[in-house]
Predict the 3D structure of the following.
Amino acid sequence: MRKLIIFISFFMFLYNISVFAETIDDESTQCHVRIDKKGVNSNCDGPISVVDSTFEDALVRVDMSEAQCLKMDVRILNPIGWVLNVGNSPSNNGAGGDGADFTNDSELDIRVLEDTPLPGALRAYTNDNAEETRPILTVENFVHRRGYNRINIEIGDQCLRAARTRRGKTNAQLQSDFIYRLDGPDEEASENDSLYWIGLNRVISDGSGRLGGGVRNVNFSLSPNACGTCE
């Protein structure tokens, strides 16, 4: 029995590596962020870096100036509150806002409400130049509030794909001129924007008090090639 358990564990380890390997290419930059009972641990450096963290959450900055596609393989356990926030603006604070600081402020969030038994939803919001109703994308029941979730997210210039790969598959994708714009002008900053920001167990802005839990591990891959969703 012990040998069988060891074999199954080793098989699952190889399977997890192979699944992530399918999403990357030889030219990509790869790193991880782990959050466990010992705190935040990361080997990210350079274009992907942890710029702020506490014992239970982290803020990641991604420089896309030499990249076209960001891929995230996210492992989540018992999520609650503001689980994940990925945006164009350093002051994104979930639910489609950034305090009116920047025009280029599209974002997505995954939130599990604390006062309801319902699963968590993924929502994506356009930037301030859009005329579409915000949010532009809503995927209900995207993460289960109890147990283990695994999701994959691809983000590139004006495109997004989000997939749940365990406990029932869900796949949503979106292309729009008003999401995740790269090298688009930020009128307030008088410069082009090539940065993405990622809040793990929190929203991006640290002044909002919007925190959460559940993210345990994120494997990042940054590629100079366009995401398949964006081609």
Observations:
- The domain at 27-230 is CATH 2.60.120.560 (Jelly Rolls).
- The first strand starts at residue 29 and ends at 36.
